[in-house]
Design brief:
The complex is a heterodimer of chains A (about 200) and B (about 325). Chain A has about 200 residues and is an alpha/beta fold. Chain A is about 30% helix and about 35% strand. The longest helix of chain A is centred in the C-terminal third of the chain and has 25 residues, at about 165-190. Classes of the chains: A alpha/beta (about 200), B alpha+beta (about 325).
């Protein structure tokens, strides 16, 4: 067997390996945080939720995580993506949570003027402690304009039970629900708080 | 009777010459078997379009560009297309230069809309074709003006946003002056309505910009333009100055927003409708500001990455999935 034959065989083998290697399959995660049921008596105030803004990578479609061994480094997943930007998901969840307490709540799609406007900035939307005790963490800062300016911050986290995309999505849904419901309760009481994680 | 040696030689030479002629015909005559027909069209911009560039119809390759010549009288390019003989144009057909994605080279696409000739102009506009007059005297098909690529569109939108923001600023200043001087309700209301329309236009532009430059949407085109610029092949865009203009627009919007908020806080509104209009303007300006901020950040991020690594557009970033919970001690 000549050197040329060996080279040709090696090239064919390499080409074959490249052709056989499967493509990366992106996994798109859908988040549907449950809205709490409306209370029997709703507060009469009218609220308008402004488009939620995001800090840094919190608004990206690519899944963010912080490895337990490097807590100051935000990493981005290779194959995990959100179906909708996290800002939109939080926006929907906020409107849903506020509607359980207030009679008139409009989302940003209507763009209606309102005396009380809820302005939210999403600070964190990431998996923390990845590889260890992983948790889905959601945090946002909120300001409510009106006669009295209210400001606050909310953070909630939920344990991630498994490595699957579904387990991760469920944990994020729980965290979003906890943070937005806490905010809606505070809004109803007229006093915002600053909850850390 | 066996052929003589001379006769064999003559036949051999004749066969060789015939074979050579056939080979030359097949090699150098563009369509030796007459399987194609020639169409003429016109384009205003033929960057990367040369003989051999593929011609597509509804996703199928049906021919190639045969020739590109400049018409000195019209300053347009006459482009000859060789397409399959069985392709027939509809009553409303046109040719345009497209690309499957911003990284792919351009190709010529033939479009045949299934509408009659009367409805054709409107259908062509709906299909984003601004037609150029076809050549006379040859089987011709209308060519469309070449649209700007995403980056050029972004540059135009930034310029547009700057102009509209300046108008909005002037209007807001005028409005503030009228309201401070206790101007008439009707005039103030009309001015507030005009301002609202201007601000709505600005918001629309900012949304377009934001969507065009959002990571994962229009950024590939932008980075590619940077690569081209770095390699000196094409493009006259200065991303940094474009971004500076965008930040100026954002500052103007912020100033407007402060003015309107100030007017609302002072309660110097003549009618409830004016107040409602001002509130809407304020909301719209907040959204515009956020859109511009995101677009500017996206552009800045891309510029930084490109500056650090010009091949970023080709190899992208390296991502790794998160480990399973509890995988590490």
């Amino acid at each position: 067997m000549t050197v040329r034959s060996i080279l040709v065989a090696a090239m064919l083998l390499l080409g074959g390996c490249a052709a056989v290697k499967p493509a990366e399959q992106p996994i798109t995660l859908r988040l549907v945080p449950a809205a709490p049921p409306p209370l029997p008596s709703l507060l009469p105030a009218a609220l308008a939720v402004a488009p939620v803004q995001a800090r840094g990578l919190a608004g990206a479609l690519r899944y963010d995580y912080v490895d337990a061994s490097a807590p100051a480094e935000i990493r981005q997943a290779k194959t995990l993506f959100w179906e909708e930007p996290p800002t939109r998901v939080v926006e929907h969840a906020l409107v849903g949570a506020l509607r359980s307490r207030f009679a008139t709540v409009t989302g940003p799609e209507l763009g209606q003027p309102s005396a009380r406007r809820v302005v939210v900035e999403l600070d964190r939307f990431e998996e923390t402690g990845a590889g260890g005790a992983a948790r889905a963490t959601v945090a946002f800062a909120v300001s409510v304009s009106g006669t009295n300016l209210l400001t606050g911050g909310y953070c909630a986290s939920a344990p991630i039970d498994g490595a699957s995309g579904t387990a991760r999505a469920r944990a994020f849904e729980a965290a979003i629900g906890a943070a937005t419901i806490a905010f809606a309760q505070d809004m109803a009481s007229g006093r915002l708080s600053t909850l850390g994680c | 009777m066996a052929p003589t040696a001379d006769r064999q030689l003559h036949w051999g030479i004749a066969t060789a010459i015939t074979a050579l002629v056939i080979i030359l015909l097949l090699a150098f005559v563009p369509d030796p078997l007459f399987r194609q027909t020639l169409l003429a069209t016109r384009f205003d911009d033929v960057e990367s379009v040369a003989p051999g560039v593929a011609v597509y119809f509804r996703g199928a390759e049906i021919g190639a560009v045969r020739s590109v010549t400049l018409d000195p009288a019209t300053r347009l390019f006459d482009v000859g297309l060789a397409v399959r003989r069985d392709w027939r144009p509809s009553a409303c057909s046109f040719a345009r230069i497209t690309a499957t994605n911003p990284l792919a080279p351009p190709r010529v696409e033939l479009v045949a809309l299934e509408t009659d000739a009367r409805a054709c102009p409107a259908a062509r506009v709906a299909a984003s074709c601004d037609p150029l007059a076809p050549r006379r005297g040859v089987p011709a098909i209308e060519g469309c003006r070449r649209g700007p690529d995403l980056f050029a569109a972004a540059a135009a939108a930034v310029g547009e946003a700057a102009a509209v923001a300046r108008t909005a600023n002037q209007m807001a200043t005028q409005l503030a002056g009228m309201m401070t001087a206790g101007g008439s309700g009707g005039g103030t209301l009309a001015m507030a309505r005009d301002s609202m329309a201007t601000v709505a236009a600005l918001r629309g532009i900012s949304e377009r910009l934001d969507a065009g430059l959002l990571p994962g949407h229009g950024d590939i085109a932008l980075t590619l333009s940077n690569v081209r610029r770095a390699s000196g092949q094409a493009g006259n865009f200065d991303v940094a100055s474009l971004n500076a203009t965008m930040r100026e627009v954002q500052a103007m919007v912020a100033q407007n927003q402060a003015n309107v908020t100030g007017l609302l806080a002072e309660g110097r509104t003549t009618t409830a409708e004016t107040r409602t209009l001002l509130e809407t303007i304020s909301t719209s300006l907040a959204t515009t500001s956020a859109n511009l901020s995101r677009a500017s950040d996206s552009m800045g991020r891309l510029t930084e990455r490109m500056a650090a690594d010009p091949s970023y557009a080709l190899h992208g970033s390296k991502f790794v999935d998160p480990p399973a919970p509890g995988a590490k001690p």
